């Protein structure tokens, strides 16, 4: 198994018009930390330059998108500036301040279990559970060892969206240790809120109840969206995750789930987080040791 | 204050939208038909960003507890005041105690009610627009229901001199005409076969019953994707891409196209193949279920020109209304 992450050679970015008022930039068709860090570095530069006429600035997994006011700035001017930023962006020696967040998860919980059983006819494997299917597909003997791998290293938030507060996360391990699963054959019409799912190579946390197509593994008692901003950690924003945050999934039992849930509902729960400076170089060089070190404080 | 007697099917308070939060998954919301929303505001002396009530397919019944002026634009829902028919795209005087009633839309899908001073619900993250999925903005973050009381904002001075102002016919859209909806192809349209790209812009599409503020799902021919070995992280279906941001107006393609609109999901893992131009999104939002949609492939210059033309038309309308003042 690889013990380091090799930076990817990225193709030429593709600059695309999203009609008259959006610019979409695809940095790569495949997911990699290189593409994601580049998307984050460029959009950060865009934010710092505070360019007139940029309305939305959205990093994504291996791409990014801007919404613009073409009455203020022509899309071609935006693209010219993005090309200039791209040429000057080097993710080597790239660092940013971020947080490691403890995310307790009750895997194989009764709620997601009920949902996934209800939608068996939309799944690749109607006779198993999503976890049994995922474990088998990724070459694990059983669900336990698959879950061990899933929580063995933290997952970085590489995009936020779909609905407010939903993080897409990419596990911080070399490519040959990445887990990968398909999405449901037909999306479900229901998913419990706070469900932890996995699809493609991304783990997600569903902020609210609704449709979804990712494999369902468990449920967290903590919120990623707090519209009323009752919890102290939501003082600045109704959404918890930001791109670049590091989520550390932790297996908990039903007793701990209920205890945390009680605190969350009472509005007294305080998230366990640690401020860190993330270095791409150190991460690429020895990801396992580096992420161990990052999560040490909150583990 | 306006008191709602009947809420209609899906009536919400909307302004021009909530911006600057797309990166946390928050769509802009805001009026689906910006043109109709803006003209309604101009007719009552409001700025374009004042909040109106957007009504879908069936209008509200409501009473006013103060004298004011109103305008109803967009879909024709045969409005009446105290049982007497009133005009649309026109400034109408309302007395305290009057009852406004709207019926089903005969043409178009969405009507806008503007009141001098605007609907004065509190702003959430810089906008009064309702986003029902997480329950924020508008009136309690939801569609209007019987008994809801909506405050009316302070108008500079109630523009009674605007009463009777009627929008020139040349500026009133004809929603029954099935005008083409212009699209700039691109984004990840390299996933479609050349034949399917052509079919997209030539076929007759029909608005499915799944057409709402989030998006319009269209029925029509099967689309085909180019064969490829799926890139890492994308998922196994040929329509899957590594999850990316969806522009407002973009056409995502989980086999059948879905045009994402004001309450869009902000990103996801289906290939996007183009974007409806900003000037035509309102046109699509007025297309009723089972009606036809034809896409027309245009370049970005045409999209920019169409936007400019619409903005200039709105500016002309504003100036003409002001001059009757």
Description:
The complex is a heterodimer of chains A (299) and B (325). In chain A, helix 4 packs across helix 5. Chain A is built from 8 helices and 12 strands. Chain A has helices at 33-49, 75-88, 110-118, 130-137, 143-152, 254-266, 280-285, 287-295, and strands at 14-18, 22-26, 54-59, 63-68, 95-107, 155-160, 167-171, 195-199, 202-205, 215-219, 246-251, 273-279. In chain A, the strands form 2 sheets. Chain A has a 7-stranded mixed barrel with strand order 5-10-8-9-7-6-11, surrounded by 4 helices. Chain A folds into 2 domains: 14-91, 2-Layer Sandwich (Gyrase A, domain 2), CATH 3.30.1360; 97-295, Cyclophilin (Beta Barrel), CATH 2.40.100. Chain A has 299 residues and is an alpha+beta fold. Chain A is 29% helix and 24% strand. Chain B is an alpha+beta fold. Chain B folds into 2 domains: 2-174, no CATH class; 181-306, Cyclophilin-like (Cyclophilin). Chain B has 4 helices and 21 strands. In chain B, the strands form 4 sheets. Chain B has an 8-stranded mixed sheet. Chain B is elongated and about 65 Å long. The two termini of chain B are 25 Å apart.
Write the layout of secondary structure elements.
The complex is a heterodimer of chains A (299) and B (325).
Chain A: E1 14-18, E2 22-26, H1 33-49, E3 54-59, E4 63-68, H2 75-88, E5 95-107, H3 110-118, H4 130-137, H5 143-152, E6 155-160, E7 167-171, E8 195-199, E9 202-205, E10 215-219, E11 246-251, H6 254-266, E12 273-279, H7 280-285, H8 287-295
Parallel strand pairs in A: 5-11
Antiparallel strand pairs in A: 1-2, 2-4, 3-4, 5-10, 5-12, 6-7, 6-11, 7-9, 8-9, 8-10
Helix pairs in contact in A: 4-5
Chain B: E1 2-6, E2 12-14, H1 34-43, E3 52-56, E4 61-64, E5 68-76, E6 80-81, E7 84-85, E8 91-94, E9 99-101, E10 107-115, E11 149-150, E12 181-185, H2 194-202, E13 205-211, E14 215-219, E15 240-245, E16 250-252, E17 258-260, E18 267-270, E19 272-276, H3 281-285, E20 292-293, E21 295-297, H4 300-323
Parallel strand pairs in B: 12-21
Antiparallel strand pairs in B: 1-4, 1-11, 2-3, 3-10, 4-9, 5-8, 5-10, 6-7, 6-9, 12-19, 13-14, 13-20, 14-17, 15-18, 16-17, 16-19
Helix pairs in contact in B: 1-4
InterPro entries (chain B): CT_A_B, Cyclophilin-like_dom_sf, PxpC
Pfam families (chain B): CT_A_B
Domain Carboxyltransferase (chain B): 23-313
